[in-house]
Amino acid sequence: MSSVAAELVDVRKTFGPTVALDRVNLRAYEAEVHAIIGGNGSGKSTLAKVISGVLVPDHGQVSIFGKSATTPSESKELGIANVYQEVLVADECSVLDNLFLGADGLFGAAEPHDVRYERARQIMADLLGFELDPDTIVGELPLSIKQWITIARGMLTNPRVLILDESSAALDFEATERLFRKIREMKADGCAIFIVTHRIAELVRIADRATVLRDGLSVGTLEQQEITEENILHLIAGPERERA
Ligand code: ADP
Ligand code: MG
Predict the structure, then answer these.
(1) Which of 56, 115, 219, 237 is deepest in the core (most CB within 10 A)?
(2) Is the shortest distance between the CB of 147 and ligand 1 below 6 Å?
(3) Nearest CA residue ID for atom 24, ligand 1
(4) Is 38 touching ligand 1 by the criterion CB < 6 Å?
């Protein structure tokens, strides 16, 4: 039995009058691709941020490898990386600088420029399928490459828990395949990967388990053999549609 990487118990998160998450229970294991699926506004990104410690729940517990983090930097120390849904890059900076934005606390100032440059070159070639000079200024690059930069930034921290929030949104089918190949490699190394998505076809291809959110509630977790479009749609739709 592999160990629990992330566990949420009875989590609630509100924004003023909006209840973004309520009574959310979830457990993800090491070496598992765990999908979070749900409609627009169902609380997926809020859940991603609660897992990664960026948002603190109003109620309930979040633990990562059995420990609870109370600040984003503690979460990072526990090995969490969250690739946000918003593609956050500094246009005026190089690919290299974007990849290691805010990374100094993680790698220490000891990592020489050449080492970073080579790591950046390698991961981008691996993900893009072609060479991209890490000194390229990001500004003029297409959105898909900017999205790859945010994905690579998360992966470069060698996370034990990686959260990808709609990270394939700007990627075509072939690029998504490359992302999935990389995800399978990380999984083989024991990483727990959360894939947040509203694209059911994608998660059928990659997920080991899938938790479904509806209006902020976790309405079920499907095991791999249960992950079908029909089952997911059924859970997303809820009882009202069942009666219709
Ligand atoms: P999803 O990622 O599934 O589309 P979100 O987690 O982004 O859903 O949002 C869930 C709900 O919480 C939505 O109603 C959204 O408007 C609200 N929400 C999310 N973030 C904030 C915020 N920072 N301030 C206020 N409301 C928010
Ligand atoms: Mg979202």
Answers:
(1) 219
(2) no
(3) 15
(4) yes
> Cα separations (Å) of 147 from 16, 82, 123?
31, 13, 13
Query: What residues have a C-beta under 5 A from ligand 2, the ion?
Result: 44-45, 85
| Radius of gyration in angstroms for the set of CA atoms belonging to the chain, rounded to a whole number | 18
Summarised one tens digit per residue, pLDDT across range 15-69 is 999 999 999 999 999 999 999 999 999 999 999 999 999 999 999 999 999 999 8
Assigned CATH class of 4-87+158-243: alpha beta
44 lines ligand 1 (CB under 6 A): yes
**How do the domains of the chain map onto residue ranges?**
4-87+158-243
ipTM associated with this complex: 0.99
Rounded-to-integer distance, Cα 39 and Cα 48, Å: 15
**What would the DSSP string read from start to end of the chain?**
-PPEEEEEEEEEEEETTEEEEEEEEEEEETT-EEEEEE-TTSSHHHHHHHHTTSS--SEEEEEETTB--SSHHHHHHTTEEEE-SS----TTSBHHHHHTTT-HHHH-TTS-HHHHHHHHHHHHHHHHSS---TTSBSTTS-HHHHHHHHHHHHHTT--SEEEEESTTTT--HHHHHHHHHHHHHHHHTT-EEEEEES-HHHHHHH-SEEEEEETTEEEEEEEGGG--HHHHHHHHH-HHHHH-
